[in-house]
Write a structure and sequence with these properties.
With about 525 residues, this protein is an alpha+beta fold. The protein is built from 19 helices and 19 strands. Strands 5-6-10-8-9 form a 5-stranded antiparallel beta sheet. A 4-stranded mixed beta sheet has the order 1-2-4-3, with no helix packed on it. Strands 13-14-12-15 form a 4-stranded antiparallel beta sheet. A hairpin with a 4-residue loop joins strand 8 and strand 9. Bound molecules: flavin-adenine dinucleotide (FAD). Flavin-adenine dinucleotide (FAD) binds next to strand 3, helix 7 and strand 10. The site of flavin-adenine dinucleotide (FAD) has 36 residues, from strand 3, helix 7 and strand 10.
Length: about 525
Amino acid sequence: MPRRFSLSFFFIATFVISPFISVVGQQRPWLPQELQELDLAERLRFDKNATTMASTDYGHLIQVLPTAVLYPSSVQDITDLVKSSFSSHLPFSIAARGQAHSLKGQAMAHNGVVIQMGSLNQTHEIRINVSSSPLDFYADVDGEQLWIDVLMATLRHGLSPPSWTDYLYLSVGGTLSNAGISGQTFLHGPQISNVYELDVVTGKGEIVTCSKQLNSELFYAVLGGLGQFGIITRARIALHPAPQKVKWTQLLYEDFSAFTRDQEYLISLNNGKGFDYVEGSLIRDESDLDEWSSSFSEKDREKIRSLLDKNHLIYHIEAAKYYDNVTAPIVDKEVDSLLEGLSFIPGLSLKSDTSYVGFLNRVHDAELKLRRMGLWEVHHPWLNILVAKSRISDFNEEVFKNFERKSTTGLVFIYPMSRNKWDERMSAVIPEEDVFYNVFFLRAAKNDWEYLEDQNKKILSFCVKAGIKFKHYLPHYTTNNEWVDHFGHKWNKFVERKKSFDPKGLLSPGQKIFTFMPWQRK
Ligand code: FAD
């Protein structure tokens, strides 16, 4: 069925846009004349500086040049651009570019137009409006806004979104197009589960408000929809009362099954009595520990070094309990009782206090350090997968113990989350088990990164051969079959939604899902 749709779609598309193909064939930048007559034309740039900037991303693995870059001054510019392509007999592809923290060109548009979403901010004041009526806490946030700005604006009202990513310099539209996951996901769901309403510019150039009640099909499509159904220009985000401080706990483990058993136990305490944040990572070498600004004493470090000499690998849980002035006197007791019965290496635990902002924004410190060392703008052949809990120990035996213990590049995260915090109606896909692990290999390389890509391929091929169920997070595929496989039972719906909301396949071509549209090919 999906294939049939693909083919008929292809034939119609080929017929409709055949003049465009010849233009692409001539390899010259081209946009319809009508577009150049619109008011937004003065905010379209064709120069090399603009197009080169839009041809890169955080991954630094591929480069795709657009024809032009739009620096919108209003949402109207975005609707005009999309309308112009939609109604033209020579359509062109369009990619919203949030912060371009994608890894493989997902926010790029070959021979199309990239919308530099951040430019909306330069012509308006920061557009984050907080409603703090006691019955209804939420923030209306424009799609280009950074989560760090959302945090600072909502804290002024004593409020905060409950669900985060580990790094806050990502755009709201960018993370809602994926999911937005972090150590709070087990408790509050991903960021896409914490949205009440959206304004979206569809692939027809219409601006539509949607929510669970209003235009719900579009609402669910866009959340985790990889930018395929519309450009998010506003999101109404759920807010909770903000904590003031964080009791930050770190625990070290020799034994993987004890590590996962404790993580799974901690995420099962989701009634407000447990931790507010649970993550985990691999420690392959002392430098991994330093990433956590850990203040283990020299005596502890000696012990850690000798464990690493023996095992080559130990495991690290990071758990946090939020508190404020009222709960400050009891927070230590609460944390101690949560730690009772856990199986971390005796003595190898740390407790420290930090501010809520300092805790949420700690990756920024690492960013600044890496920037100073010239190690931020490098290649990032990351692998991000969600692995079903039932086989996580096989994954450890083969992947962590065999591949990763020898690798010292980039952190490796591993922490569990629960399926029941994800809404099946949304486009995001996750493994079909009640609990699954988020496994992020955050690889970085100054020069030869190909061997790290090979390592990723070996990991994936091991999972396939061993029958380990997993889903890619921040997916990137090159064939239709891989996308059909990725979406599984959601594929038909995904295609139907594409037909409804972006029938000409204009949006987010860099995801390479609907590559049978000629203007989405490279
Ligand atoms: P972009 O890369 O600009 O865009 C991503 C996709 O979304 C593209 O297809 C683009 O066309 C589309 N898009 C962008 N804006 C909009 C919009 N307004 N409307 C519709 N579509 C749009 N992810 C997590 O979940 N948890 C983490 O902890 C986490 N940490 C990260 C740390 C770092 C250092 C980096 C580089 C990435 C991290 N990510 C994490 C991944 C991140 O969430 C995604 O890469 C996300 O897409 C980045 O947002 P962006 O604004 O840079 O999006």
